[in-house]
Each structure stands twice: as C-alpha cells, then as structure tokens.
Design goal:
Blueprint (H helix, E strand, L loop, with lengths): L3 E2 L4 E6 L9 E7 L7 H10 L2 H9 L7 E5 L7 E8 L7 H17 L4 E4 L11 H17 L7 E6 L2 H11 L3
Parallel strand pairs: 2-7, 3-5, 3-6, 6-7
Antiparallel strand pairs: 1-2, 4-5
Helix pairs in contact: 3-4, 4-5
C-alpha cells in the first residue's frame, strides 16, 4: 500500500511479522512487568533473542502507559520500545493504549530514531477491539505529527492478521 505523507511524518501500513521489520525502533505491546509472553512479544523475543526480555525486565516494572527502550538483539532495528498497554492482569483500555502510544512516539523522538514499526497495541492478549485500536493510534499519531517531530520521519503499522490489516486500512484511508 502506498505511503501517506502527513505534516512531518510518512505513514505506512503493512501486513506481516513485526519482528522482521526494518526500523529504527520496533514496538512491543508490553505488560507493566515487561516479561515477554506470546503474540508480538513472543515473536520479538524468538527472532531477537532472550537479551531483549532480560534487559526489559531489569528496567521494570513500569506504570501502565509508560514506555522504555532496550537493545534490539538480533532484530533489524536499533531499539525495541516496550509500550506498557496492560498490567499483570493483562487487561487494557483506550486510555492505556493512547498514553502508551504517545509515550512510545515521544521516546522514539528522544532516542533520535528515524522510523518506528508499531503493532496493533493491546489487541492480542489484551483483547482490545482492533478497529478501536486503529482509531486511537491514528488519532495519537496525528497529535504527534502536529507537534512537529524532528527525528522521527516514518511510522509503519505492521499488522499480523488480514483482519487487523483491513481494520487499520479503513482508518488509514481517512488520514
């Protein structure tokens, strides 16, 4: 799908495995204790290696909504940004996702990465509706774009399932 240019950012959506993405930072939909289970976290840990989880857990726990960075192990990225979208109960909501997304974008800017690969936060284990997630992430991205990031130039939403891709594409067409 063709990339779209906002004020400062180029936005793309892709279907695939986020652990195979090439970006300055790959985003992990994390829990506040930062242990890496299944889904996005499992794919990142499997491809990137156990050092990612060990480094993340050493920095935790963090509050739901916060984001921290670790090295990226064997991934084709400089960092993994762990966005805590849920607590130990593995439940999430709109506020947690929006706050974690904003803090992820802000951390990427602080780390001076030029690109971010981001999944549908909180829609796997957290069971948050994908369409609602897409709306929240695009709204948060537009606010970040309006703030005029200096370093981050590209955000790539990487969706694993066709359903997630289709739901994100619906909002992507409106930006």
């Amino acid at each position: 799908m063709e990339a779209k240019k906002l004020k400062s950012l180029v936005v793309e959506i892709r279907r695939g495995d986020i652990s195979a993405a090439q970006a300055g930072a790959i985003v992990n939909a994390a829990n506040s204790s930062l242990w890496m289970g299944s889904g996005v976290a499992g794919a990142i840990k499997t491809r990137g290696g156990p050092s990612i989880e060990m480094e993340a857990m050493a920095k935790g726990p963090i509050m739901v909504g916060q984001a921290i960075e670790t090295g990226a192990g064997k991934l084709d990225a400089r960092y993994v940004i762990h966005a805590a979208v849920m607590g130990q109960d593995l439940l999430t909501g709109a506020s947690a996702i929006a706050t974690a997304a904003w803090n992820t974008f802000a951390l990427a800017e602080k780390l001076k990465v030029d690109s971010i690969a981001m999944p549908a936060l909180g829609t796997g284990v957290g069971a948050f509706p994908i369409k609602s997630c897409a709306k929240l992430l695009f709204e948060t991205l537009k606010k970040f774009d309006a703030a005029g990031p200096e370093y981050v130039k590209r955000v790539i939403f990487v969706l694993y399932t066709q359903r997630a891709f289709d739901d994100f594409e619906e909002y992507y067409r409106t930006i």
